[in-house]
Design brief:
377 residues, alpha/beta, TIM Barrel, 8-stranded parallel barrel, 12% strand
């Protein structure tokens, strides 16, 4: 084989090797996507935002976040009562808005707001908890207690937390069904060189978490720019999105490109996994005395949002009751597992690492062959 042919062969091998190597490092994009729309506009007659969602229907817009008064209002006025009934009749999943003020609000006051939602709208399918901070054990504990309060008292309810940015504490990821990991303007969202997008968290990199990731982008200037944002959101594993052209009052009026956004929903709908209660982090006070312990239950699979009926937390067992287990601290009972924890990926990681080594070897072949030719071995 002459030197020219060898040079061509080595170049091809190098390109293949590098392609495989870099391809292995790339994360897969989400293959599903749905819209969750914040609706903070009063439902007056012919209100544009409300009319826009009615026009497109619940198949295209499965989740609507309702915010009467920076949280629920009790009682709802006549306009809101009518609007809530209309949402139900048209098949929309109502999401109740509450604010936690970066975990500085009294958690029991937050719980009262959650209870109010199920009082004024018993068919509420999800709770959207705004203003979440992450990074400290106390903040994680607050989020965990809130999550379990909802899951125990209103089973089947979807829990959405809004940090508005990546999770600084990834352990908090088990204490909500969906996280808003981006709530930002279009320029920052498109800036791939910013620290925000250069240092994407492991939680966001994993395409399996796409059903737990929600991105909101505002200030979009054209349909073409919206398409860029849409494509980028899929690369970033956002299974849920909302985009708007508005630069202020983002959630009070429909975007100029709203119809086009709805038309662009051409992937299968994202089906969220509604988790179950999870044991609190170590050292965390059980504020609501729920006594949640992880249970190994193969039948306890995540479910779709369903009709929610309040369930009172279980009372502590009475030691005088003959039905109480004699040995509640049995070692077997402590062998627990959490449904929402990530599966063991050790074997997949080993396979991937081995593939990377092979690809690196292929990429190195041109150097080796060139050295052999030069030294006439």
């Amino acid at each position: 084989m002459n030197k020219n042919k060898i040079a061509i062969l080595t170049s091809i091998l190098g390109i293949v090797g590098l392609s495989v190597l870099f391809g292995l490092k790339a994360s897969a994009a989400t293959s599903t996507q749905s819209i969750i729309i914040p609706m903070y506009k009063y439902p007056s007659k012919n209100a544009p935002l409300w009319e826009a969602i009615y026009k497109h229907g619940s198949t295209k817009i499965p989740y609507t976040i309702v915010n009467p008064n920076n949280g629920p209002a009790d009682p709802l006025d006549a306009s809101y009562q009518k609007a809530m009934t209309e949402l139900s009749n048209r098949g929309f999943n109502k999401v109740g808005y509450v604010a936690q003020t970066y975990q500085n609000r009294d958690i029991k006051e937050l719980a009262k707001d959650i209870d109010t939602w199920f009082k004024i709208a018993p068919d509420t399918k999800a709770i959207f908890i705004d203003e979440m901070a992450s990074g400290t054990p106390a903040q994680r504990c607050y989020v965990a207690n809130t999550y379990n309060y909802i899951k125990v008292k209103y089973p089947g309810t979807l829990v959405i937390q809004n940090p508005g940015i990546y999770l600084q504490d990834e352990e908090i990821g088990k204490y909500a069904d969906i996280f808003t990991t981006a709530e930002t303007d279009v320029e920052k969202y498109l800036d791939k060189d910013s620290n925000r997008w250069k240092n994407i968290s492991n939680f966001e990199k994993d395409s399996k978490n796409s059903k737990k990731i929600y991105h909101i982008v505002y200030g979009i200037r054209s349909e073409a720019e919206q398409q860029k944002v849409l494509e980028l959101s899929r690369e970033r594993n956002a299974g849920f999105i909302y985009f708007t052209s508005k630069t202020s009052n983002y959630y009070r009026d429909p975007s100029d490109n709203f119809d086009k956004l709805i038309e662009s929903m051409n992937l299968p709908a994202t089906q969220p996994e509604v988790g179950t209660p999870v044991e609190l982090p170590e050292g965390c006070e059980d504020v609501f005395n729920l006594k949640v312990k992880n249970k190994k239950d193969p039948e306890n699979k995540p479910t779709q949002p369903s009709e929610n009926k309040p369930v009172e937390p279980a009372k502590p067992a009475d030691p005088k009751d003959p039905k109480t287990p004699k040995n509640p601290n049995n070692a077997e009972a402590k062998k627990t597992d959490s449904k929402v924890e990530a599966p063991n990926t050790g074997s997949r990681k080993s396979t991937k690492d081995f593939s990377i080594l092979i690809a690196a070897g292929i990429a190195a072949l041109p150097i080796i062959l060139t050295w052999i030719i030069r030294h006439k071995i």
